[in-house]
Amino acid sequence: MSDPLHDELLQLALEAADRAGRLLRDGRPADLGVAATKTSPIDVVTEMDIASEKLITGFLTEHRPHDGFLGEEGASVVGTSGVRWVIDPVDGTVNYLYGLPSWAVSIAAEKDGETVVGVVAAPMRGETCHAVLGGGAFNNRERVSHRPAPPLSQALIGTGFGYLAERRAAQAEVVRTLVPQVRDIRRGGSAAIDLCDVACGRLDGYYERGLNPWDLAAGVLIAREAGALTGGRPGEPASHELTVAASPEVFGVLQPLLEDLGAWHD
Ligand code: IPD
Ligand code: CA
Ligand code: CA
Q1: Which atom of ligand 1 is the closest one to the Cα of 93?
Q2: Looking at residue 234, what DSSP letter applies?
Q3: 157 with 139, same domain?
Q4: Tens digit of pLDDT for each residue in 89-142?
């Protein structure tokens, strides 16, 4: 039976992601530049990241004034309703800046600390993935499921790199050892889309160190609701330390391998 609160949160998240996606797609200035940098000179923010977050938080606050917020571009509100929205207004900002299509709006709703709704809209793909806790995963409202797992040697694995040079050097070492053991590696540039690609059967697995809650909250729920397994280091949930998502049999091999390779530390 569906929960009326979850239904309400899903409809709001879908509408907010659609509005922000249209703003980003149709309103992208031809001369889009970098407005600011964050953790390093290559960790960039554009005026559109800020405009998108403003649109999303404004829309959600109008409908649910007592909810909390955590947004990458600074939204930080402690609410009183038990609901908190976790927002990445543009996931894949470097792709967006360069005019590459792989970027998304990611919106998750937590109830009492648990993610109950996830929406990832990828306007240049014409696709929106969503999931509600316990209700399966969908792409453009069609049910999706992870891929039947191949042996690791035939698995297509997505990953990503952080913005700090020291972390990247460690991440490159992990990839160096992994790439001869798998079909190939993909670096798409949007963690939220990578997680949806696991959900839709377009990647056999994905892992990354250093993700923040706004990168992973919606996508991890979507991957899990598509039947994939998600986690961090063995026995741990997906986190900043490490996020892994994969078809179950691939997960069973990939997670311990990443543990041995030290993919969870710099
Ligand atoms: C980044 C993307 C990228 C991942 C980075 C994230 P941003 O998010 O998801 O794929 O590798 O770790 O920080 O900065 O474009 O929102
Ligand atoms: Ca992000
Ligand atoms: Ca972002």
Answers
A1: 15
A2: T
A3: no
A4: 999 999 999 999 999 999 999 999 999 999 999 999 999 999 999 999 999 999
Q: Which two tokens stand for residue 247?
A: 């078809």
- Cα(160) to centroid of ligand 1, in Å? 7
**Closest of 231, 230, 221, 234 to residue 260, by C-alpha:** 234
Confidence of residue 48 (pLDDT cuts 50, 70, 90): very high
State which residues form the domain around 256: 152-261
Domains of the chain: total = 2
| Atom from ligand 1 closest to the CA of residue 214 | 16
Cβ(197) – ligand 1 distance below 6 Å: no
The Cα–Cα gap between 224 and 123 comes to 22
Q: Which of 248, 242, 244 is nearest to 228 (CA)?
A: 248
Q: Is 123 domain-assigned?
A: yes
Separation between Cα atoms, residue 57 and residue 68, nearest integer Å: 10
